[in-house]
Amino acid sequence: MAKPTRELESKALKLSPRQRARLAQRLISSLEREVDADAEKLWRQEAERRLG
């Protein structure tokens, strides 16, 4: 793990449980917004095939 990541993790673990939960929620949400264009295309094709 890179030093900046370790430092960030160390600081995050010093937050209150409520603050850590909020941070975790925001981090997870940021991952869910990323769209894999190839996967999206394949799912769209599959849906069209099934509805075909």
Number of strands: 0
**Total tally of structural domains:** 1
The whole-number mean of residue pLDDT values reads 90
First and last CA, distance: 48 Å
- Rg over alpha carbons: 18 Å
Biggest sheet overview: none
Structural class by secondary-structure content: mainly alpha
Provide the β-strand percentage band.
Answer: under 5%
Instruction: Tell me the helix content.
Output: over 70%
For this structure, the quaternary state is single chain
Instruction: Indicate the low-confidence ranges by residue numbers.
Output: none
Number of helices: 3
**General shape:** elongated
Order of helical and strand elements: HHH
Give me a quick take on this structure.
The chain is an all-alpha fold. Helices cover 81% and strands 0% of the residues.
Would you write up a description of this structure?
The chain has 52 residues and is mostly helical. It has one domain (3-51). It contains three helices and no strands. It has helices at 3-13, 17-32, 37-51. The longest helix has 16 residues, at 17-32.
